[in-house]
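Protocol step 4 of 6: record predicted structures for both targets in the notebook before any analysis. Target 1:
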Amino acid sequence: MEVPSPPREGRLQPTLVLATLSAGFGSAFQYGYNIAVVNTPHKVLKSFYNDTYYARHGTSMDEKHMLLLWSCTVSMFPLGGLLGSLMVGGLVDKCGRKGTLLINNIFAIVPAILMGVSKVAKAFELIILSRVLLGVCAGISYSALPMYLGELAPKNLRGTLGTMTEVFVIVGVFLAQIFSLQAVLGNPTGWPVLLALTGVPALLQLLSLPFFPESPRYTLIQRGDKDTARQALRKLRGWADVEDEIEEMRVEDQAERAEGRLSVLNLFTFRPLRWQLISIIVLMAGQQLSGINAINYYADMIYASAGISAAHSQYVTVGAGVVNIVMTGVSAGTVEWLGRRLLLLVGYGICGSACLVLTLALLFQSTVHGLSYLGVICVFSYIAGHSIGPSPVPSVVRTEIFLQSSRPAAFMVDGAVHWLTNFIVGFMFPSVQEAIGAYSFIIFAGICLLTAVYIYVVIPETKGQTFVEINRIFAKRNGVEIPELREETTGVEPHVSPPTQETFF
């Protein structure tokens, strides 16, 4: 009788690394780049809006009209993100994880062209429309990419690859900040190129990603193609004997047969996944409502109060971007060592503390010399804390706590919460800040505390565990039993669920 080989630790094989680079650079990078690309050159873009309006009507645009148009330009991105998140469930099931990422490039290349010609066409409407399409691109990629990377990775590297979504988002933000500098492309002649650059990563992904494997889990469990899944695993792992992972997928398939293909409505009423669903909602809402976008919004004012001129504040913003990249890299490098829970708890602790100290610094900076500089330190500390846990780690956890049958519907819910809370903070914070000033950061500190308490009480540590093992941990909390897998040793081929006829709603 042949003795099965012991489980091996996965390695960062060239195929796995290059697939991650291709998928991440062409997807999450787009999200980060387009979050930040309109911030620094906003005066230049507003000038283009006004000049276009004057050419059409013979008069300058009034301030209210300009504010409305610029608000649309900014807010159309999260609105498109919400639309994209609602599309992703059907796409990843019908087209696969890799196929969805490839199709998604349409929503980057078309707006890149439209924005690139908007100045020549004298049509600022093209920029606003493009922001919607880019939001759709970001919404799809923010859900499809962690799903793809999480299913490519061996369990001992799942955390590291899971954080790559946020790493590429941050790299996109940072490069947008660099290219947006007035001395580079953030000027009256360079801004069309600045906006059109978003098409370059999409083209690179279209040229490279087809050469890498589809998710082996999707190929085996949902397509029933065992041979292709085995070939993909061999390329990704770097060894020929991958039967241990094939067996793990077979066990996962058996564990979820009773669930079928869950729709979003099924997910909300399915008791065995109750706490998993609540957990991703809390994680994604906490990520946005803890104040990261508000800190970014308030940063320029804090820098100005510290005596930093507007000309120099753009470079301070770039410095904050460096902190963001470095600490996200630290998170990616330590998530498999320190675990998901600890990074989340430490991150929220730093963010909540920074919000409390920032409140005091803003309240008393006019009477106590030097507190304005403390405000700058708080901004950098908050960004560092968010980059350690709340930003990158939820992308890891949301992939790990759902099995194959429920993951697409769960990611639709997850994405919708992410984009809705993103929009709420961006829309409401200016009004809240105007009403209560520095005390608004007390609210964010409270949200950090509540999210940390939930994580401590409810969310288990998931590092180094299979998807089925994690599912069993949550089954106890949900008060349900997972039937014993009687067929585990019978060598039964994986069950292929028939294509679902119901919509994802």
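Target 2:
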Amino acid sequence: MDRAEGNAGQPGPAERSHRSSVSSVGARAADVLVYLADDTVVPLAVENLPILSAHELHRAVREVLQLPDIALEVFALWLISPLLEVQLKPKHQPYKLGRQWPELLLRFTDAPDDDVAMDEPSLQFRRNVFFPKRRELQLHDEEVLRLLYEEAKSNVLTARYPCDLEDCEVLGALVCRVQLGPYQPGQPTACTLREKLDSFLPAHLCKRGHGLFAALRGRGAKAGLGEQGLLTAYSQVKEAAGSESEPEATLRSHYRAYLLKCHELPFYGCAFFHGEIDKPAQGFLHRGGRKPVIVAISLEGVHVIDSREKHVLLGLRFQELSWDHTCPEEEEPVLWLEFDGDSEGTPVNKLLRIYSKQAELMSSLIEYCIELNQAAEPTAPQDSTSGPHSAPSSSPPPAQRPKLRRQSSVVCSRIQHLSTIDYVEDGKGIKRVKPKRTTSFFSRQLSTGQGSYTVVQPTDSLEQG
């Protein structure tokens, strides 16, 4: 599990069942079960399973599903359980990694021994973290688009992809169209949609509360709002021209529309990791504690998501951060994220500390994503010079990172909800919150000269305040 392609994270699709992928093992042959995003199974009868590579299994799945060659880049094989998720490299041997699963759990999770002993991964065919979402626009094969749609839908419904209600309704309406066919006035009604609302909207938006607590959360008084908004959005789904004579083309258009809407989410296509951050001190005794978070990492950047509240706490492009990870003896591993901010109007460097046994995995994935982006840079200027967000390196930060349209959006950073360590450079070293411009602790960062994050390399004289 070297480099960045071992990706661990929170339970997702694997929550639905606890499944084994090897149903029988003989001297030479074995029946292998590979799970798709819609929870269907591809059974494979393979020879020499113990030495079979992920690449060979991937090819077998493609042959059964009759997928085009591009599927080799779009999808990857994953080992997934409720405790850990690992994207496999082509050279990895899934059977061998499956046998090593308890060791991986002990290394990269805090799971109790009893859970480690009972846990068993399933082999799943999922989107490749390193496949750029811009290339999805070039895909035309219906089955490839369907598999991507099913995976994205699962991530929306399980709130792995936090979405605003209006976006959830648009996405849910497309699911209605795929599952129920073209909208017909009066069919379905809001009442019939309510019966299976969790098939179209995330579960936390479907719960109907009662009493004072529900009223305070603004849910009890709004019963029926979700299904009515969903029904309205369903009625507005546009049909492709000539859809009656080409139903397959119509499905492709709806799969594509769903994916394009998901592309607006900054964490689409991410690998997900589990961690904790410090809560801001509150009350007279300055009690803080910790908050569980999901760290989502993609080719575009890093997002820290509140596991319980289902909203983004911090979103950073690679141009906007420095990072490192530390694994001190007898202490918890930590992933450090450093970014520009302000403290009462004073520009500062903010350090966010993420406690996680997966800090090493996250750090490696960030580094690998940056390397892939830099390798693709020769073709980037042609696209970026005419783009709406392009700007020369001397432009101010707002031109580099446009404001979100909805400041109340769940995808908007909530810096005020973070407990960070704030530093500035005072001329002699790094001190906490002094009125001068910042410097960086870390040398590890994206250094293309195109970002808004400016760093002075640390020297021997730097000291912690």
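Step 5 preliminary note on target 2. The radius of gyration is 24 Å. The mean pLDDT is 78.
Proceed to step 6 after PI sign-off.
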